[in-house]
From TrEMBL:
Catalytic activity: 2-(N(omega)-L-arginino)succinate = fumarate + L-arginine
Keywords: Amino-acid biosynthesis, Arginine biosynthesis, Cytoplasm, Lyase
Domain Argininosuccinate lyase C-terminal: 364-431
Uppermost EC category: lyase
Name of the protein in question: Argininosuccinate lyase
NCBIfam families recorded: argH (TIGR00838)
Gene3D superfamilies linked to this entry: Fumarase/aspartase (C-terminal domain) (1.10.40.30), Fumarase/aspartase (Central domain) (1.20.200.10), Fumarase/aspartase (N-terminal domain) (1.10.275.10)
GO molecular function, one term: argininosuccinate lyase activity
Chief site of localization: cytoplasm
Positions of the Fumarate lyase N-terminal domain: 7-301
Highest taxon, organism lineage: Bacteria
Localization in the cell: Cytoplasm
InterPro entries: Arg_succ_lyase_C, Argininosuccinate_lyase, Fumarase/histidase_N, Fumarate_lyase_CS, Fumarate_lyase_fam, Fumarate_lyase_N, L-Aspartase-like
Length: 457
């Protein structure tokens, strides 16, 4: 098939080359944005008297029909037309003949593809923001239902101090908030229009970039045509955001996987989000959480891929940049898919409050509180730490918890200890006493929740 750019060529492209450089198999996803950009461009060409209004109208009507045809599955894209841009342009020419050949005036595929991908990414950012808000709302709800669900908090994956489930869930909510803020930052930086950059050096035609900019809802037109066709920061940035967002989900998944093990037994993932084993009849595996954890590596790969593609490229456009699309689509779609499954998974899981409380009571998670108790009785923290360490050592040797030690035994270690110690080291008191800003006491967690709810408004 004759190429739209075939004038200076004598021979046809080899079949091998056609397959090798064609991107239609993946960039067909951009058809809507390509048509949207072309419509704005055609309107602008007429408004600036670069083409006749009548021609522009005919082009726009045909483009709309092409979009309908694509949506109704009536279009068979062709590899020999390389990419979505040339496929649509050739469909247009098939439909309306010579008039269709006027659309590409004052435009290059380089600014066209930069525009299409930017429009796609902008919509994806909006969609991701909604998904993240749903996720954040689900986290808040889970926290609200578990304000007094006591569990052990961990450092080094060793039981450390008692907290509430709400407190730890709200930690994940804070991460989700920042994930949303990073998307807002993306929008502030990158809602800029590359259309009108031409191949790299603008155009000799009297185009009106402010007009297309406003039509397409951009904050501004890019200020440098070379940058306009060369910049892929906006892809790198969204994939960096996706990587961070996935890392956050993955850490939570790691906890869910641990918590659903028989060793922890803190939660049970609902049947809808777990799977069985083909061999072991007793098994119930937390596959959804494992897959989110697994897909995190894949999204990092998408980010590394585009960073590596871009690092050695001279200005301006280079065909290497065609490699930007598959990783962009993959990173965004993976993040979206993971968010879509995480929300119902945590909403439906069963919380085993009793087991969490029992675990909080074990492992001497209230040892810090015992030391704090001694400090409040007038002992310095370092001495209190030492005495408490000796008490813990003693309890370990007797295989009992701190609250099982009788008052006479306590007083062997320090005369300052009185019977009020038992209330002070009760795990529930340990949580409610931690009233410092951001701490696990119910009023602090409620404050955290209030704060995030107003962020969501
Ligand atoms: N399919 C190409 C891409 O995705 C479109 C731009 C082609 N430009 C060019 N000068 N060959 O990057």
């Amino acid at each position: 098939m004759k190429k739209l750019w075939g004038g200076r060529f004598e021979k046809d492209t080899s079949k091998l080359m056609e397959d090798f450089h064609s991107s239609i198999s993946f960039d067909k996803k951009l058809y809507h944005y390509d048509i949207m950009g072309s419509i704005a461009h055609a309107e602008m060409l007429a408004k600036c008297n670069i083409i006749d209004l009548k021609d522009s109208e005919e082009i726009i009507e045909a483009l709309r029909e092409i979009e309908d045809d694509i949506e109704n599955g009536q279009v068979e894209f062709s590899v020999s037309q390389e990419d979505i841009h040339m496929n649509i342009e050739s469909l247009l020419i098939d439909k309306i003949g010579d008039t269709g050949k006027k659309l590409h005036t004052a435009r290059s595929r380089n600014d066209q593809v930069a525009l299409d991908v930017r429009l796609y990414t902008r919509d994806a950012v909006l969609e991701l923001k909604e998904l993240l808000k749903d996720w954040l709302k689900a986290l808040i709800k889970l926290a609200e239902n578990n304000l007094d669900t006591i569990m052990p908090g961990y450092t080094h994956l060793q039981r450390a101090q008692p907290i509430s489930l709400a407190h730890t869930v709200m930690a994940h909510a804070e991460m989700a908030k920042r994930d949303i803020q990073r998307l807002d930052a993306w929008m502030n930086i990158y809602n800029v229009m590359p259309l009108g950059s031409g191949a790299l050096a603008g155009t000799t035609f009297p185009i009106d970039r402010n007009y297309t900019c406003q039509k397409l809802g951009f904050d501004s037109a890019c200020m440098n045509s070379i940058d306009g066709v060369s910049d892929r920061d906006y892809i790198i940035d969204i994939l960096a955001n996706a990587s961070i967002g996935m890392m956050h989900l993955s850490r939570f998944c790691e906890e869910l996987i641990l918590w659903s093990s028989q060793e922890f037994d803190f939660i049970e993932i609902d049947d809808e989000f777990a799977t069985g084993s083909s061999m072991m009849p007793q098994k119930k595996n937390p596959d959804a959480a494992e897959l989110v954890r697994g897909k995190t590596g894949r999204v990092y790969g998408d980010l590394m891929s585009i960073l590596t593609t871009m690092k050695g490229l001279p200005l301006s456009y280079n065909k290497d940049m065609q490699e930007d699309k598959e990783v962009l689509f993959d990173g965004i779609e993976t993040w979206e898919k993971c968010l879509r499954i995480m929300t119902p998974m945590i909403t439906s899981m069963k919380i085993k409050k009793y087991n969490m409380l029992e675990a909080a009571k074990g492992g001497y998670t209230n040892a810090t509180d015992l030391a704090d108790y001694l400090v409040k009785k007038g002992i310095s923290f370092r001495d209190a730490h030492k005495i408490t360490g000796e008490i813990v050592f003693y309890c370990i040797s007797k295989n009992i918890s701190l609250d099982q030690l009788n008052i006479f035994e306590y007083q062997e270690f320090s005369q300052k200890i009185e019977v009020d110690v038992y209330d002070f080291i009760d795990v529930k008191t340990c949580v409610s006493n931690r009233k410092s800003i951001g701490g696990p006491a119910i009023e602090q967690v409620k404050n955290n929740i209030r704060n995030l709810k107003s962020f969501l408004k």
